[in-house]
Design goal:
Strand content: 5-15%
Number of domains: 1
CATH architecture: 3-Layer(aba) Sandwich
């Protein structure tokens, strides 16, 4: 993005610094490969893939929409952000890891089949989910706790009853989607919008009362998480009141569902989070629970 943009390189630096603390010494680190065109094409129109990569400038910046810009390194970054998810799915499917966290940027959950928006170009988590399906699984779920609704993921999933998408998010808020009556086919879309100012207790009840029972009923064979940490009370772009303990609780509950139905298989990918201290601490809390579940 352009200098001064909230979606900055410092975000990833904050996450990686937090995960280099002694408590995470046992983590297995891998460099993300670039996503293949086949993997991207399961989610995105191939003509869009070609067009968005062709638009990457050799110098300076190109603005895609009022919020989203490209620099010279954006093409490689977006390919590796999507490739991290497919590589993580492969590693978990092969038994090389029980679960994985993809520390990536740019984020992805706003990207639709042929549209970049909201800092997102390729839908990293949807690409990973459809890759898991291509590996032979049938029922794949994505849970999204970013402060913004993942309109792109819903867009990709809403007509396929073997895919499940659930989201808690602030409403009314960008991007203006994610109302409770948006339910896809056979209820495979579950949106629980919450009002600005809601704290972690409200969000935990949304999971306990609505999302977790429906996820259990879906019985996913793989659980993926859009891990946006901008619902944290310190985030400058959000208006909710979550804490690191709330992210730990949600992660723990999702891992428990994965243990019951999916052999513990979980892949998580970074989405939003724009207060650097809160982002690092929240990501650390999330990964600590993934490690405990493994």
């Amino acid at each position: 993005m352009e200098p001064g943009h909230y979606e900055s390189p410092q975000r990833l630096e904050a996450v990686l610094a937090a995960l280099r603390a002694p408590a995470f010494a046992s983590l297995q680190w891998r460099e993300a490969p670039e996503a293949s065109r086949d993997a991207l094409g399961r989610v995105h129109d191939p003509r869009y893939v070609d067009a968005v990569l062709a638009a990457v400038p050799t110098e300076g910046y190109v603005r895609i929409d009022p919020d989203t810009a490209m620099g010279a390194g954006t093409g490689v970054a977006m390919l590796r952000a999507a490739g991290a998810g497919t590589a993580a799915v492969d590693a978990v499917m092969a038994g090389e890891a029980r679960n994985a966290f993809c520390a990536v940027r740019p984020p992805g959950h706003h990207a639709e089949r042929a549209r970049a928006m909201g800092f997102c170009f390729f839908n990293n988590i949807a690409v990973a989910a459809l890759h898991a399906r291509a590996r032979g699984l049938r029922r794949v779920a994505v849970i999204d706790f970013d402060v913004h609704h993942g309109n792109g993921t819903q867009h990709s999933f809403e007509q396929d009853r073997a895919l499940f998408y659930a989201s808690t998010h602030q409403d009314p808020f960008y991007p203006g989607t994610g109302h409770a009556d948006e339910q896809g086919v056979a209820g495979n879309i579950v949106n629980v919008p919450v009002r600005g100012g809601a704290d972690g207790a409200v969000v935990r009840r949304a999971y306990a009362d609505v999302i977790l029972p429906k996820l259990d009923a879906f019985a996913p064979e793989f659980v993926l998480i859009s891990a946006g940490f901008d619902a944290h009370h310190a985030d400058p772009l959000g208006g909710l009141g979550l804490t690191e303990d709330d992210y730990a609780w949600i992660t723990r509950e999702l891992c428990a569902v994965a243990a019951r139905h999916a052999g513990g298989r979980v892949v998580s990918a970074l989405e939003g989070g724009y207060d650097l201290d809160a982002l690092g601490a929240s990501a650390a809390s999330h990964v600590r629970e993934l490690m405990a579940a493994a």
